[in-house]
Write a structure and sequence with these properties.
Layout (H helix, E strand, L loop, with lengths): L3 E4 L5 H12 L9 H10 L5 E7 L2 E10 L1 E2 L6 E9 L8 H15 L4 E5 L11 E2 L13 E5 L9 E2 L9
Parallel strand pairs: 5-6
Antiparallel strand pairs: 1-2, 2-3, 3-5, 4-9, 6-8, 7-8
Helix pairs in contact: 1-2
The structure holds coenzyme A.
The site of coenzyme A has 18 residues, from helix 1, strand 5 and helix 3.
Length: about 170
């Protein structure tokens, strides 16, 4: 499969929404509103990065980054997700390629690191490490992971953007 990873364009918004809904629908842990979160982040001006993978004119992959805060006040941290790959082409490396592009973008911008809530079997291969002590209060700490570019995070908890809780 050949694909091109690029920043989203306005015409991609419906396809991103639909892809995210289809990718998360079979997942037992899904809230069912992951596609709405992307729209909410965008409306709030908090979609720091939104990359699509396009193949033969179709959007087959997507990853979002948004700003997060840390109780220490330290800046430079992002939240990764939602991330979606078309169910028909999962496990072919596209998810990894999207994460790599998002990491490159953060590094180039001098970010400190990135957080996410996800499967602890999948994300360590991309440099994320479980960090339950840093988990936001409203998140399951066992699934909370941090990727750092420049040393460990400071003592204390992170918080996702309020849009994650319908408060954005
Ligand atoms: C998670 C997701 C983006 C990964 O994209 P992908 O293109 O399938 O991933 P890659 O091909 O880069 O990596 C595949 C590897 O990751 C593993 N993997 C992928 N998703 C996984 C998951 N949810 N749990 C555990 N392992 C997973 C696979 O086992 C595979 O490894 P293997 O081939 O050695 O078995 C994609 O599966 C997806 O859209 N899932 C539904 C939505 C979702 O769960 N998003 C993440 C929420 S945290």
């Amino acid at each position: 499969m050949t694909y091109r990873i690029r920043p989203e364009a306005p015409a991609d918004h419906p396809a991103i929404h639909d892809l995210t809904r289809r990718a998360f629908a079979p997942m037992a842990f899904a809230g069912g509103d992951e596609q709405d979160l992307i729209d909410a982040l965008r409306s709030a001006g908090a979609l720091s990065l939104s990359l699509v993978a396009e193949s033969a004119g179709k959007i087959v992959g997507h990853v979002a980054l948004s700003p997060v805060t840390h109780e220490s006040g330290e800046g430079g941290w992002y939240g990764l997700g939602p991330i979606s790959v078309d169910p028909a082409i999962q496990r072919k490396g596209l998810g990894g390629a999207l994460i790599a592009e998002a990491k490159a973008w953060m590094k180039a911008g001098g970010a400190r690191g990135c957080i996410l809530v996800g499967d602890t079997r999948y994300y360590p291969r991309h440099g994320f490490a479980p960090a339950p002590a840093h988990a936001p209060e409203r998140e399951p700490s066992a699934y909370f992971m941090v990727l750092t570019f420049d040393g460990p995070p400071p003592f204390g908890r992170f918080s996702f953007h309020p849009s994650f809780y319908g408060e954005g």
